[in-house]
Design a protein that fits this description.
This protein is 39% helix and 14% strand. By secondary structure, the protein is an alpha/beta fold.
Length: 389
């Protein structure tokens, strides 16, 4: 068999506690971007942590990169406390209208965020008041400064610990000039606060960040569900992937302009996750077919350099993709990603925890896979309309 196929098939799962001992291969968590919706991700992580299922690899973009950096950049005993500290720091307790005039409360809260920012996250810039055509430079061309986020991340993430590679972290960015997606990972080079800041630099609200002489924005404007980072990784390893979806892929037909605007954002930021997965299933099936074909080639021919190179495209890894879909809540659906109210954050955190807890009890990775397919997709969570598929 080809060299790559042999190396893939010999990969052993990491040592795990009994509660997660049967998980085949590495545990990967993929976090989308979505602002305040990222509290759901914190609940997902808490459920994994409580079940003693610590990720081997976290991939994130935007708020997902922030959550991922806090998880990967702290020892297990400190991760939940640091996540809680971050989300308490960005939360708001509501206006004087809270509890009796919900729409007015939401409006005042959103207005306060737009005009005043969030002290531990971002603050308004003065430059936009000079006019949208005023040239201030690519690193200042934004409505808000994210220097408060820099200070917050520096206090919550131990980058020395992160770069000791106890857990792999990958953050997604897009190059401002080339428009190409780029993933930075601590497996290949040390990461610092600027890498996380770049992944969260959503324009035109937040400014770009310069890395290695190039400027980068939030990877979510290119691909908000960075599954390809793990499915295209080399060497390929069998994986159980918790893909946390914050934006609903499907939804009801909108009946007002406001609902149209909300549904448009859902479709845009779900980033064609389903089509990406279908493509990856096809590719992975071809890899398994190549692996099976190798068994029908005489051994003497398999040793030739040409055949080895061709067979190197094959593999025998398995990918269990567990989609956790965040629910759609009633209320201000259009501006849900800036719902930093403590009520909204607590509710999403709690639902993320319960959804993941139920999924872990089902343990879908135990379901046998067709040896030719190699990729299984399960949908779970309050937002998918079903428990498991």
């Amino acid at each position: 068999m080809a060299k790559q196929a042999r190396s893939d098939s010999q990969v052993q799962p990491p040592d795990r506690p009994d509660a997660a001992a049967d998980i085949p291969g590495q545990v990967v968590v993929v976090f989308q971007g979505g602002g305040a919706l990222g509290a759901y991700q914190a609940g997902v992580y808490q459920a994994l942590h409580d079940a003693k299922v610590e990720p081997d690899w976290v991939i994130g973009t935007s708020i997902g990169a922030i959550n991922g950096a806090i998880v990967a950049g702290n020892p297990p005993k400190d991760r939940l406390a640091r996540l809680t500290q971050f989300w308490e720091g960005v939360s708001g307790r509501g206006s004087a209208c809270a509890g009796w005039m919900q729409n007015l409360d939401e409006g005042l809260r959103n207005l306060a965020i737009v005009t005043q920012g969030i002290p531990s996250f971002f603050a308004p810039r003065l430059e936009p008041w000079l006019g949208l055509h005023t040239r201030v430079g690519v690193e200042r061309a934004a409505f808000y400064s994210t220097e408060p986020l820099r200070a917050t991340l520096s206090s919550l993430v131990d980058f020395d610990y992160l770069n000791n590679k106890q857990m792999r972290l990958t953050v997604g960015t897009v190059n401002v000039k080339s428009g190409r997606m780029r993933y930075f990972t601590n497996r290949d080079a040390p990461l610092d606060v600027d890498h996380v800041m770049a992944s969260a630099a959503f324009p035109p609200g937040f400014p770009s960040v310069r890395l290695d002489g190039e400027t980068y924005w939030d990877g979510g404007i290119y691909s908000n569900t960075p599954l390809e980072a793990v499915l295209d990784d080399r060497p390929r390893l069998s994986s159980v992937i918790f893909a946390v979806q914050l934006w609903p892929i499907s939804g009801p037909e909108p009946e007002s302009i406001r609902e149209v605007m909300s549904r448009t954002r859902d479709i845009q930021y779900s980033s064609r996750a389903e089509s990406h997965l279908e493509r990856q299933k096809q590719i992975h099936r071809l890899r398994h077919v190549i692996r099976e074909l190798a068994q029908h080639i005489p051994e003497a021919q398999r040793e030739s350099d040409t055949v080895k190179e061709l067979l190197d495209w094959g593999c025998g890894t398995t990918m269990h993709v567990l989609e956790l879909d965040a629910p759609r809540f009633e209320g201000n659906d259009l501006n849900k990603d800036i719902d930093f109210s403590w009520t909204g954050i607590s509710r999403r955190w709690a639902v993320g925890y319960e959804d993941t807890k139920r999924l872990l009890q089902l343990a879908p990775w135990r379901t046998p896979l067709d040896p030719i397919e190699g990729v299984a997709i399960y949908r779970a969570g309050s937002g998918c309309g079903q428990t498991l598929s």
